[in-house]
Structure formats: C-alpha cells, structure tokens
C-alpha cells in the first residue's frame, strides 16, 4: 500500500496509510506512550496544546466497548478489531481568556499527524475517523462544554485485506487517489496552478 509519489518524500510519509484490516495483535503500552508523546510535542498556535484524548485498549474490554460505541456503525464494523481506540477532543477556547481558538481543530490535526508518523515508524497503523457520535461521547465521558469530540483514532497492526468482508475490501482498495498539485497549489490568483508543478 506504499504510496507511489511524484516527488521524493520521507519514507514514513509514503508508508503511512489507513487500513481497514487489523491483525489480532496487541500494541504495547510502551508504543502507545510514544504515540501520545509524539502528539504532545506537536506545534500549536500560542502553544495552547488544545488536544485531549480518551484511550481504551482492547484488553480493557468494558472501556473498549464504551469507546467503540461512540463510533458510527460503518466504522464499528472494522474498528472493533483494532488493538486500541482513542477519541481526539479539541479544547475550543484559549485557557487564558476563554476566547475562541481558531486553530483548535487545526492543531488537533497536527498532533494527529505526529501520532500517525510515530506509529508508522513503529510498524503500527492508524486509521482516523470523523464518523463518531460526538453527543454520545460527550455524555458517556462527561466531556465539558468548550471541548469538542472530533475524531476517532484506531491503532493497531495492519493485516492482509484478504481477510476483510467483500464490501470493506473494495473500500480498502479504492480509496487512495490523490489530487494533482496543480489542482491545489496556486500562484498569483486563486485557481492558477503554480508553475512549480
Ligand atoms: C480526520 C479524518 C477523518 C477520517 N474519517 C474516516 C471515517 O470516519 N471512516 C473511514 O473509514 N475513514 C476515515 N478516514 C480515512 C480516510 O478515508 C483516508 O485517510 C483517506 O481515504 C486517504 O487514505 P490513506 O489515509 O490510506 O492515505 C479519515 C481520515 C482523517 C484524516
């Protein structure tokens, strides 16, 4: 599943992907600590560090079930097999003055980028999910106002997609196309492709 890139990039970037098929193999606490340590060291606007996580390992069956129940059905079908689940929750307002932090969701994403690359470097795979039930998560975990459950994060070892049900296997195989640089990198005026590409 390694990306065939048009220009050279770091191997970790080309290797990272979001599988649907996960092996029945647990992720060590040491690896999990390092993944969230990588998230911790992400850059953030005003160093606000708006990211928060709720984690549940598969072995912690009740908590894993609880977190799984915060995903939409279409994600539960495959995410039930992963070794660990997390919810990414962003603090929407600055701690110092309670004003809205426009970068809150952006910076949760940056932390996710760090986490995912750290995981890739350890031979792990991460599949992020916008398909969660934020209201249910808020209720089940008593998430206070001003904090927004944004994403689910599935962590584990990728398995051969051959073991997936037909429908998921098709989804797995079909969803890695990329826009060309000309479609999103402009010069001088919106929509005019940069001649770099
Ligand atoms: C913030 C975010 C939310 C996503 N939400 C879902 C989701 O709810 N369900 C799903 O199956 N995939 C989800 N994905 C995975 C994307 O579909 C996937 O990253 C994209 O197709 C590109 O594939 P790749 O990650 O293998 O390069 C999400 C990815 C991100 C970054």
Name the descriptors.
197 residues; alpha+beta; NADH Oxidase; 4-stranded antiparallel sheet; 7 helices; binds flavin mononucleotide
Describe this structure in words.
By secondary structure, the chain is α+β, with helices and mostly antiparallel strands. Helix content is 34%, strand content 15%. The protein is built from seven helices and four strands. It has helices at residues 11-15, 29-40, 61-68, 73-79, 104-121, 134-141, 166-174; strands spanning 51-57, 84-91, 125-129, 147-156. The two termini are 25 Å apart. Bound molecules: flavin mononucleotide (FMN). Residues 17-18, 75, 128-131, 151, 175-176 line the site of flavin mononucleotide.
Terminal residue distance: 25 Å
User: Going by CATH, what is the homologous superfamily?
Assistant: NADH Oxidase
Residues in helix, %: 25-40%
CATH architecture: 3-Layer(aba) Sandwich
> Which assembly state applies to the chains in this document?
single chain
Strand order of the largest sheet: 1-2-4-3
Mean pLDDT equals: 96
Identify every distinct bound molecule in the structure, by name, code or SMILES. flavin mononucleotide
Shape: globular
Helix/strand-derived category reads alpha+beta
Return the domain count. Answer: 1
Topology of this protein?
Layout: H1 11-15, H2 29-40, E1 51-57, H3 61-68, H4 73-79, E2 84-91, H5 104-121, E3 125-129, H6 134-141, E4 147-156, H7 166-174
Antiparallel strand pairs: 1-2, 2-4, 3-4
């Amino acid at each position: 599943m390694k990306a065939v890139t048009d220009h050279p990039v770091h191997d970790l970037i080309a290797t990272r992907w979001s599988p649907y098929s996960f092996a029945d193999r647990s992720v060590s606490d040491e690896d999990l600590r390092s993944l969230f340590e990588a998230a911790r060291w992400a850059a953030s606007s005003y160093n606000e560090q708006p990211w928060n996580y709720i984690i549940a390992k598969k072995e912690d069956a009740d908590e894993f079930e609880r977190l799984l129940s915060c995903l939409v059905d279409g994600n539960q079908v495959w995410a039930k097999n992963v070794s660990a689940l997390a919810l990414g929750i962003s603090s929407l307002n600055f701690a110092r003055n309670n004003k809205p932090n426009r970068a809150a969701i952006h910076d949760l994403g940056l932390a996710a980028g760090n986490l995912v690359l750290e995981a890739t470097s350890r031979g792990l795979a991460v599949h992020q999910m916008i398909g969660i039930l934020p209201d249910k998560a808020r209720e089940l975990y008593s998430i206070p106002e001003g904090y927004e459950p944004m994403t689910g994060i599935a962590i584990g070892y990728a398995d051969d997609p051959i073991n997936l049900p037909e429908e998921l296997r098709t989804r797995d195989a079909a969803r890695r196309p990329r826009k060309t640089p000309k479609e999103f990198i402009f010069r001088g005026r919106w929509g005019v492709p940069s001649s770099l590409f």
